[in-house]
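Ligand: pyridoxal-5'-phosphate. Inputs:
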Amino acid sequence: MNDLAVNRQTFDEVMVPVFSPASFVPARGAGSRLWDTEGREYVDFTGGIAVTALGHSHPELVRVLHEQGEKLWHVSNAYTNEPVLRLAKRLEALTFADRAFFANSGAEANEAALKLARRVALERHGADKIEIISFTQSFHGRTLFTVSVGGQPKYAEGFGPVPAGITHLPYNDIEAARAAIGPKTCAVIVEPIQGEGGVLPADPAFLRALREACDAHGALLIFDEVQTGVGRTGHFYAYMDTGVTPDILTTAKSLGNGFPIGAMLTTKEIAAHFKVGVHGTTYGGNPLGAAIADKVVELVSDPALLEGVKQRSARLTAKLEAIGKRFELFKEVRGKGLLIGAELVTAYAGRAKDFVNAAAKHGVMLLIAGPDVLRFAPSLVIPESDIDEGLARLEKAIEEVTGATADAAAR
Ligand SMILES: *Cc1c(COP(=O)(O)O)cnc(C)c1O
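Predicted complex:
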């Protein structure tokens, strides 16, 4: 029998080393608090990377998990099921979309979107219209297609030939987009806020220019809302506050609050280019995931909850700005709703990870978005008292990191 005693060290012995997880091992969560295997408690500002929108072990979600778990988990897409049909109806009532395809992750939702865009262009315009335009620093997932479309070359290099017909442009550069989008453009894919790339919001005028250029050239506009979707910005989807409607929207992360599920939403006309057998998945839209996501969407789309996101955002942002002033630490605090980035001043450039590590020691979990940005993506229902407590702990961590630097500089 296996030795069942495991710890952080075990990771290095049994796992493919593509991650470098924190030194502690989370064991239990409730709301926005988390406990590790040693019983130490943390305030969670990461939300599992913008995933646990309703916090850990939300009672309503636990109830649905149990109820559906006792009924039916999986039947494959040779059959449909009631939870997935309800979820599709709910998402379509909330959005521009009237067709949905379910997958298990953000990357798979984007893979479906990109394949659909290529198929639409082929059938409507012919074999030359294959160019996909995306933006530098963007992130769309880790499959070979999505990593090639993503704007961080280091993620796509070293795996042999990548799919052809992909162009990267600078984000928020209207002139570059107008110049590049043309008759060969099949689709433009954009994050309304670049999450992994540094919490960089798109200019509404930039998104409008993309919409106009796509319309002028018969290209599809894809919004990757994997990180910004499901209430994250204080709107159910970020596009709703931009005045721009995409042709295809992808969503995942918060959609299942930690149960893996992603979706591609689109219109009936576009969806009609995917015929039976053209694309597929074994797990996507299974009744267990769909039942949970349906409850997540029901709870998060409540206007009172979305209003609460804006209030929490204002509190977190104001307090971060004050901390930034006090320690002369942040160049800028930016983002929207509860997707907030604090960019470090030049003196601390490249050291975001040091702050994250120090924060963990002081009992608060946060994320980076590149080497210079601290990222906050907590639960959308995080109590204000947890925001305050988490930031108090963060201040102690900042004192430690900046104090250490001052000492080193004095030496
Ligand atoms: C996280 C993320 C993805 C990838 O989602 P996975 O579930 O990890 O495949 C894609 N796009 C954006 C914008 C993301 O933030």
